[in-house]
Write a structure and sequence with these properties.
Pfam families: PapD_C, PapD_N. One of its GO terms (biological process) is cell wall organization. It comes from Kluyvera ascorbata. The chain has one helix at about 125-130; strands spanning about 1-5, 5-10, 15-20, 30-35, 50-55, 55-60, 65-70, 85-95, 110-120, 135-140, 145-150, 155-165, 165-170, 180, 185-190, 200-210, 215-220. It is mainly β. It has a five-stranded mixed sheet with strand order 2-9-8-4-6, with no helix packed on it. Strands 12, 13, 14, 16 and 17 form a five-stranded antiparallel sheet that branches. It has a four-stranded antiparallel sheet with strand order 1-3-7-5, with no helix packed on it. The termini are far apart.
């Protein structure tokens, strides 16, 4: 399945938005959609998610496009920071008539994309918020990068790296490179040589903006 957005930003005051889902496979499929808080093992609508998707179940022929409406139920959310939820699309290939008694391999797929509620109090943009992030290096073995997000935005990155003598050493995370609002996160830096720490280190962030595009932000690394 192909979705026409990589994320959905719901601004305070909006009641509905939508996404378009296209079946890019050569076969029809049944699709179930729901919103939850990000549990990869969940397959039902979360009672904690104030958004519903209509229709929740539909089928798509090959190359067919379906519009899915996202409705906000008005539940009060945090006013000083973004709230993060996840749109889930679970697709199952349709089984041809006559094959139900034969052995075959049926592969389903689950796709997730971010659904972010943004309150009116957040007046900066994501890029400005990304520029406010500060990072230091913990020089205990193994090295680690500690980054602080002082903003109310969820900041997602395609890549975070520390440069030394013309080489870039990538930070690693257990799940993804994301900084929640007002949080401090620790990322691995195992490949960075211990002796490289000192003056002259720069850190580069490849921030993912609201449009799903990458923006590069670089500055000196604090120690």
């Amino acid at each position: 399945m192909l979705v026409d957005k990589t994320r959905v930003i719901f601004h305070e005051g909006e009641d509905t938005q939508g996404i378009n889902v296209m079946n890019i496979n050569a076969y029809p499929a049944f699709v179930q959609v729901w919103v939850d808080t990000g549990d990869i093992n969940n397959f039902t609508q979360s009672p904690d998610a104030p958004f519903v998707l209509i229709p929740p179940i539909f089928n798509l022929r090959a190359d067919e496009v379906k519009s899915v409406k996202i409705i906000y139920d008005g539940k009060k959310l945090a006013a000083d920071r973004e709230s993060l939820f996840w749109i889930n699309l679970y697709e199952v290939p349709a089984v041809k008539t006559g094959l139900t008694h034969q052995q075959y391999l049926l592969m389903s797929m689950k796709t997730q994309l971010k659904l972010i509620y943004r309150p009116k109090s957040l007046r900066d943009n994501v890029t400005a918020a990304g520029e406010s992030v500060s990072c230091t290096v913990e020089d205990n073995a193994p090295l680690a990068l500690v980054c602080r997000n002082p903003s109310g935005y969820f900041l997602s990155y395609n890549d975070i790296s520390v440069s030394f003598r013309g080489h870039r050493y990538q930070a690693t995370a257990e799940v993804d490179l994301m900084l929640p609002p007002f949080s401090t996160q620790r990322f691995g830096l195992k490949a960075l040589p211990q002796a490289s720490l000192g003056t002259g280190n720069n850190i580069t962030f490849r921030l993912i903006n609201d449009a799903g595009e990458r923006e590069e932000i670089s500055h000196a690394l604090n120690r």
